[in-house]
Amino acid sequence: MWQWQQIEKLLKLRPPEPNYYLNIPRVMYMPLMQDQGPGDHLAQLGPVLYACAAHVTEGSFEKTDISLSQIKSLTSIVDGPLQRLSLIIADSLARRLLCPIQGFAGALIHPSDYFEQSILQTARCNLANLSPYISTGFVTINRAILEAMEDEKVVHIIDLSCSTSHPRQWIKLLRDFHGRQGGPPEVRLTVVHDNNGFLADMRSLLSKEADMLKIPFQFNSVIGRLETLDFNNLRNTLNIKYGEAIAISCSLQMHRLLVVDDNMSCSGIGQLQKMANIAQLKKMASLVYSPTSTLNYPQTPSPQCQTPKLLASFLNAIRALKPNIMLVMEQDANHNALLFCDRFVEALNYYAALFDSLHAVIAANPRMADECARVERMILGEEIKNILVCEGVHRHERHERLSQWAMHMNRSGFDHVPLSFRAIWEGNQKLMSSGLNGCHNKVENDCLLLCWGSTHLYSISAWRPHKGTTSGSREQMIVQPQSQIIWADN
């Protein structure tokens, strides 16, 4: 946690300690001094990243080149989570500067083209194995499903988590159903995923577990991604049968349905705001950090005045299925702001916390270091690039905060279902079992927020279709703000 305390200071997440300013160099582009230690180099990284983002926004090749050279020098001194994150951000900033050049954006190779599918799938599974937050999400979601299906005889679980899907979640649920008073229900599980081999392995693993537990079980696979499903024919696509109780789990995927053409939201006011944000980035860089520079950063809101059509279509289709419960887990961050400056500040803070949490996991499990490095580059790194480099319909990683998701769900005719004390308690127990001091949770409006230090990383919420009407009321809104795949056994 020592390094995360330093990172929080650098990224302006908490007020400085007395006399801290006296020990920080004020000149941004001075040559690196030979007698500076790792702590001094770490202290310069944050300001240089802010300065580089400002230069990229201005379109200055010369100034950006100076900043990128400084970042490379600073990250070569020691290895740590902020250094590794800074290299990914530097790569993203360089790409963003070059994107306006004709033909450059089209020449970029998509990750799916240069990562082997099996290796990419292994990295996805390793993220679930490494992250205490995703494991906590599985536990909390499972408990909410068990409670919603307490007296049901035929249960159909629909896993729309796609690339985040993991058989470990459903193995645990099958075992919990096995121990249910009165006996287990008949269980049908439908999983949407774009990897046929993954689905085949998952089917085999879960079918063997169900046979061992003597639970009637049927596995249905749907090839695709959430955004490619036919929402006009969702009942047939998911093989829904009348009379069965339905539970829907959607982890870290719904933000991909927020895609809009951002150019439609640009205006003269937006350009003025862009200029103001450039000035603010420069101020944050030159002052190194101040107690309020991030908290009072003049961010613009997410561009949607209304729920985007793709998300609205999806939620309308889900509502028509009349599920008993729908569980949503999402990254709790404002990465859907229209302006790049806003997204940069939010992404730097958010991923610094996420990288540091994984660094703490590896400190306790050094043998997982190689797996963690691949997760940082192949999964989190590509998320960051999408947030910082891409615009419009090409920007899919549009994470939003819990209050925004509550607004979308309510507008689409869903009522909030409070997570039970037991679901929250079991999630907390799972999170604490990681043994990481920085991990903790917060309960906000009967939803669960999973945190590292002072940073919210993920939100978990539960919903059901509003009875009697086709749309929700605004008053109900929450206002607060491979090689081979190796499954973990627990």
Summary tags:
490 residues, alpha/beta, 9-stranded mixed sheet, 9 strands, 13% strand, globular, TF_GRAS
Helix-strand layout with pairing:
Blueprint: H1 2-10, H2 38-58, H3 61-75, H4 81-98, H5 104-107, H6 111-114, H7 117-130, H8 132-148, E1 154-159, H9 167-178, E2 186-193, H10 196-213, E3 217-223, H11 234-237, E4 245-251, H12 268-286, H13 309-320, E5 325-331, H14 340-364, H15 369-389, H16 402-411, E6 414-417, H17 421-432, E7 439-444, E8 447-452, E9 455-465
Parallel strand pairs: 1-2, 1-4, 2-3, 4-5
Antiparallel strand pairs: 5-9, 6-9, 7-8, 8-9
Q: If you had to describe this structure to a student in words, what would you say it looks like?
A:
With 490 residues, the protein is an alpha/beta fold. Helices cover 48% and strands 13% of the residues. It contains 17 helices and 9 strands. Strands 1, 2, 3, 4, 5, 6, 7, 8 and 9 form a 9-stranded mixed beta sheet that branches. Strand 1, helix 9 and strand 2 form a beta-alpha-beta unit. The two termini are 26 Å apart. The C terminus is likely disordered.
Summarize this structure briefly.
By secondary structure, the protein is of the alpha/beta class.
Beta content comes to 5-15%
Share of helix, binned: 40-55%
Order of helices and strands: HHHHHHHHEHEHEHEHHEHHHEHEEE
Number of helices: 17
Q: What is the residue-averaged pLDDT?
A: 82
Poorly predicted spans: 12-39, 288-304, 469-490
Oligomer: single chain
Largest sheet: 9 strands, mixed
Overall geometric form: globular
Extended strand count:
9
The N- and C-terminal alpha carbons lie at a distance of: 26 Å
* Coarse structural class: alpha/beta
The radius of gyration is 23 Å
